[in-house]
Write a structure and sequence with these properties.
By secondary structure, this protein is of the alpha+beta class. It is built from two helices and four strands. It is 31% helix and 26% strand. Strand 1 and strand 2 form a beta hairpin.
């Protein structure tokens, strides 16, 4: 699992990485919770593919954040 974001200077950087054996809601919830523990703030939009567990985790831990779906997965 990996999270990337744009810093205040507009550069993209890796925010966090974590190995996961499944892409379950609990795995994504743990990952997002660890991001929040690192004092991640100022998130306006999340962009992810349409995985139900990931979407539920984003909605649970990122209240008020707009979620945008990906058109393709690399």
């Amino acid at each position: 699992m990996i999270a990337v974001g744009n810093n205040t200077d507009g550069y993209t950087e890796i925010l966090s990485m974590m190995p996961g054996d499944t892409e379950s809601e609990s795995s994504w919830s743990e990952f997002i919770s660890k991001l929040k523990d690192k004092d991640l703030h100022g998130v306006d939009v999340t962009n992810s593919y349409d995985h139900k567990g990931l979407i539920r985790a984003i909605m649970q831990y990122s209240c008020g954040v707009t979620r945008q779906g990906c058109q393709s997965k690399l």
